[in-house]
Amino acid sequence: MLTAYTQNGTPLFQLVEVHIRSHGATAMARNTDQLSNEPRSFVLAILEVYDRSSKLINGAFKGDHGFATAMDKAFGHLVNNNAVTQFTRNSAKISELLARYCDTVLKKSTKNPDELELEESLNRVMIIFRYVEEKDVFQKFYSKMLAKRLVAGLSASDDAEATMISKLKAVCGFEYTSKLQRMFQDIGLSRDLNDQFRTTSPTTVFDFEFIVQILSTGAWPFSERNNLTLPVTLERPVNVFRDFYHNKYNGRKLTWLFNLSRCELSANCYKNKYILQVSTYQAAILMCFNTVDVRTVSQIRSEVECEQPFFNQILLSLLKVKVLVLQDETEEVDEKDLENGSVNVKLNFAFKSKKLRINLNVPIRSEQKQEEDATNRVIEEDRKLLIQATIVRIMKMRKQLKHQQLVGETMQLLANRFKPGVAIIKKCIEILIQKEYMKRDEESKELYIYVA
User: Which of 3, 82, 330, 355 makes the best surface tag, with the fewest CB within 10 Å?
Assistant: First the structure.
């Protein structure tokens, strides 16, 4: 009876849809700047709207199908079109924020919940994920963050990570999660390989723990960046492992990703003994001071052979925490101070810290921005390739198809990954015509013919 009720000719379930949209838009418009930058605040705000709407539908309307559908439509619109997307002018921002929230939930910390709470948090994430249109953007950001957690050993729980991948697979299929699952396999295989390396390699070569992770090219969202000449102390185990690996797997090529590597250095030059957690680049610079107390910027740069401006950023990170200081002991240091290669850098023997184990390996802002831009570029390129592959698959099956039908079927097949625009589909059709995968009919330009 309620479903049939109308107000000025409008069915009640449509009025409910409008109400949920309006209520959700108002909720998301509060503290837009905060919601755009804090994943947890964003997710909680969205879920609050969902919980209130669910209570309304299940309580007042007894879960009626028409009203449940009205809620789905309203919530789907809210997730993909809200004050955050308008404020950032980026429809993909929702996918990024949701992926970052997953990272905070799944990353090891002092506030990690128990397994049941973690499972519930993942279930709540999936409520939002099902409504997200740009699931390919979520995949790219989630993949990068998962990769970093696995490489750095920062996952709160391997079981939780596997559970989340299973949930994504259930919604989007095997192809969507195949690379994520391959990452897990690589980490397991690397553990076994390190055990074999320790039992077969001579322990006299180096007297510190040396762990290598072998990552499959194509599965991990990483690329080689910035050259580095390792100190002899670090180069020796690298060479030993390279020989071990090539003897075991003849023909395989190893590419070392020093930008992802990290070290722990024992600093015995200060009043207290500190353990410095550093990147490999920071370690290479600090180890230049093992035999001398003072070096020029040029001397350090030539020894580590790291490219500019990355070298200056790494050196600056050590100067700002006062582990190293400039010869004139300038209080405020910036990159301009390092442009003169003759400037002296020295160990700061007066360095003090309340902590004996100090993490100096913090992300460089410019590097983070480059990584974000690179991710967005990869998303755009991957979308073009996926659209082209989808069009070819459709044309191979249909042989002939009119333009509007081809566009419609392409959008329908890709709806589970993202919502492609008509313009980009047209562009991909033109690319495929140029590549001679298909052609226009000579009599009707609206008709496309598959070229076998």
Answer: 355
